[in-house]
């Protein structure tokens, strides 16, 4: 088992004193999109953050500005392999799994192991340290739903042997592990079912629809739509998602029952494409392709439970959130072009 040292011995000694106001948060997958944004928010709030990432899909540039901060620690590690942490841990967030189909389908067995074995390792860590642990589950547990919007009570329509199954079923199994570990061992758990989220720090090559559309439009390429574009999604800006995640983590009344987090505003993929084309002033147009196997036709969260339990609902509209998101991708493309130019 890998043993991770955290903060200096004086800090650890102080943290063991009664009443010392310390919060040490472990973020697995902390160099990824949502994870890196959460690392930054918690460090800015004065918390001590340990980022654990194997960098399969996480990016060092996502957390580069945090590396010199005394409240931040980075450790390269795959949570499929057991590990321990020296010193106190109060909170654990699990974001350690590729979340876009091209990424998680690259090595489906490892994707499944990350969700299942990784969850076991983080639950064991939480039990040893007495930390509260939050599982980032997904709207993908609902599969290709036959009801809309999807409440937490809906059991889903998932193909267990399809191209998306490694992710969908891995997340479903992780929810079971979290729920049953709470029941049998008393570990303090939270389960967030995250719907489509977007914003700065997304990988331009992520493969999800907003990153694809933004990069294609800014690069003068036709936007790729699979199917006829009538399928729908609900898009939540990352700042709203962070508000929901932190609220869920810090509430004392959520227990082990899943909570949907997402923006209930519903858009067709074609509407999204036309919005991105308009906002980027692109004339590249749209290119239509066959719909992938098991691609959901409709996805929209019922956030009644989150609103009642957490007092949370998203505040940022799709158009408002796309402004900084498109600016971010403009900067990423410029950096990439500059790098390629300098290498020639």
For this entry, give a set of tags.
344 residues; alpha/beta; two-stranded parallel ribbon
Q: If you had to describe this structure to a student in words, what would you say it looks like?
A:
Helix 2 packs across helix 7, helix 6 packs parallel to helix 8 and helix 6 (209-218) packs across helix 10. The protein has a 7-stranded parallel sheet, with helices on both faces. By secondary structure, the chain is α/β, with parallel strands linked by helices. Helix 2 (33-44) links the parallel strand 2 and strand 3 (48-53). It has helices spanning 9-15, 33-44, 101-104, 108-129, 165-185, 209-218, 238-250, 269-280, 304-310, 318-343, and strands at residues 2-4, 24-28, 48-53, 72-76, 83-85, 91-94, 132-138, 189-194, 197-198, 223-226, 232-234, 236-237, 259-261, 266-268, 286-289.
Q: Rough shape?
A: globular
How much helix is in the residues? 25-40%
Kindly report the oligomeric state of this protein. Answer: single chain
- Distance, first to last CA: 44 Å
Rg of Cα set = 20 Å
Low-confidence stretches: 9-21
Proportion of residues in extended strands: 15-25%
How many β-strands, per DSSP? 15
The helix/strand series, from N terminus to C terminus, equals EHEHEEEEHHEHEEHEEEHEEHEHH
Number of helices: 10
- Tell me about the biggest sheet? 7 strands, parallel
Could you give a short description of this structure?
The protein is of the alpha/beta class. It contains 10 helices and 15 strands.
Topology:
Layout: E1 2-4, H1 9-15, E2 24-28, H2 33-44, E3 48-53, E4 72-76, E5 83-85, E6 91-94, H3 101-104, H4 108-129, E7 132-138, H5 165-185, E8 189-194, E9 197-198, H6 209-218, E10 223-226, E11 232-234, E12 236-237, H7 238-250, E13 259-261, E14 266-268, H8 269-280, E15 286-289, H9 304-310, H10 318-343
Parallel strand pairs: 1-5, 2-3, 2-6, 3-4, 6-7, 7-8, 8-13, 9-12, 10-15
Antiparallel strand pairs: 11-14
